[in-house]
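= Paired protein data =
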Amino acid sequence: MKTVKGYPLLLGYIGIFLILTGIINLIPLVMLIAFPEESVFALNFIIPGVSSIIIGYLLTLIIRHKEKSRFERFEDSFFLTVMWSLSILVCSVPFLLAGYDFLQSLFESTSGLSTTGSTVFSAHELPYIYIFFRSVLLFFGGVGLVLVITSTVSDRYGMRLYTAEGHNDKLMSNLAKSARLILTIYAGYILFGTIAFILLDMPWFDALNHSIAAVATGGFSTENLSIGHYDSFLIELVAIILMLLGATSFLIHMYLFKGVLKKVFKHGELYLMIGLVVIFTTIMTFNLYENQALIDPYGHHDIWHYLRHSVFTLVSAITTTGLQTVENFHGFTSFSLIMVASLMVVGGQLGSTAGALKQGRVVLALQSSYWFIRDKMSHSRTIRTNFMLRNGEYEQVDDVEIRHNYAFIIIYLMILMLGSFIIMSFGHSFEDALFEFASALGGVGFSTGIMHYQAPWQVLSTGIAGMFIGRLEFTVIIIAIFKLFFDITKKDVR
């Protein structure tokens, strides 16, 4: 049997993902059952959906009935970068066919698949089928396109793609079974949230879309005022629970369902998240309360009002969800904006749907800083082994992992500063620019109003780049670029 490898193998796999992307474009058509008057938009989804499936099928013929070789060095990163780029392009076509320009369509598509939830459109002006399409993008972007494929097709080399896409949550020995379990948990939470929202008098369409947005940690909403439109503490509470579930490692969810609570609470990221939310909420509540005349012109003077909005905003920030209970952030003090931006940089747990740096990397950075100071104060002959609390167990950490962790954090912060400076060059303040790009890079969706329908193309392009880099984690993209360069120049990398 002939063995396929190299670029033919990559094209074959790209074909599989183009079929998936085509299906993603066709799923919103189910909303025509509830909203038949929107059948006028059907072709906007059928054209890119069917075209993607046909092209994908033709590409899969390259690898059909042939032995598939193992991915060579850097091919997994190159494949993921191309695959995500094509998916974003194809999923932008329905917006293009609706009359929006290319950059706006690309922004919305990237925002959906990266689970950012930032939008340049008004929710009240979008047809229901398009609102649901954005939620579909959040759903598939949250779990990852590779995971959806591996849930149905078990590829013996799929783990390299699975981990390259940012997953460390192989829950079972078989990758396909692990992927199906994650999808089951994911869908179960969305169903729970939808029912809970409906019981709290939220319309079923709003309930479904907000449930997907919260669990996928993406900020798309059916209302321009987001969750704040409903002005309900119980709805906000359900949303907070869903956001926290979405930002928690799926491995922890498995322990929770199995009743292994000891491992659930023996997780360093959990304590970091609790600590940051409690401390930041306390400080921010009093900061907003002391400046109530500035941030709240409608007469709310009780501290409960500020506590309620502080908790929701900060949980939404650290889970990188982007759902809001406040109309905008213009009334926030600079101090409060920086606090929210700080949590947007930290992000959710490794192995979750959340983005940004991830709490696991922050925990490791804090612990390794402590180890550094401890070793400096110890006798020169003292030798210690370092351990970190992860997923219910103490795992050994070596110097290579520490160096890689610090390198990732430094590069992330450099990209954050670069994007912020680009936005600043268009006349925005430092705190607004930092807030906006931290939101894009972390996949959050909060906005001070900089990313909008008529924003300069340079600003929207910076936001698109930030969302894409943040979702794939820049190392994958950098490796893919080097892979292409070395192949073109016929050079080898050691």
User: Anything to note?
Assistant: The mean pLDDT is 85. The longest strand covers residues 386-390. The two ends are 32 Å apart (CA to CA).
